[in-house]
Amino acid sequence: MELNDLYRDVILDHNRRPRNFGNLDSADASVEGFNPLCGDRLTLRLKLHDDTISDIRFEGQGCAISTASASLMTEAVKGKSREEALALFERVHQLLTDDAAPEPSELGKLAALSGVREYPARVKCASLCWHTLASALKAADLKSLAAVSTE
Length: 151
Ligand code: ZN
Prior knowledge:
There is one protein chain. About 45% of the residues lie in helices and about 20% in strands. The protein has about 150 residues and is of the alpha+beta class. A hairpin with a 4-residue loop joins strand 1 (about 30-35) and strand 2. Helix 1 (about 5-15) crosses helix 2. The longest helix is centred in the last third of the chain and has 27 residues, at about 125-150. Zinc ion binds near residues 62, 63 and 66.
């Protein structure tokens, strides 16, 4: 099987059966993301335990790439620290936008998103969930700061 076929199968599978899809009760942050270029919408909710993303879920409607990307992202960042998750965001962003970027083997299944590079109009579809994640981590941060200041 060619690598491109493998990548396509990963995207199709995660679009058909998105992981971590649904609501999340008592989340520490809930952030909505919207990609006007394609119409993709998602709501990302996460829980932080100390500095670790202990749970994360998404809901919404979008194209196959945005759904698959969000599914792959939630799988990849669950159990990771905030810093690790943001570092992963940087590497994925490079994978999506930089033709010269080697396909980093440590990205695992996320490497399947590298095919999107050929379609610049779809990069926003794949990166929407990551930008939303960065906002959610910031929102969770502000919430915990607010909690500290009212103690
Ligand atoms: Zn899209």
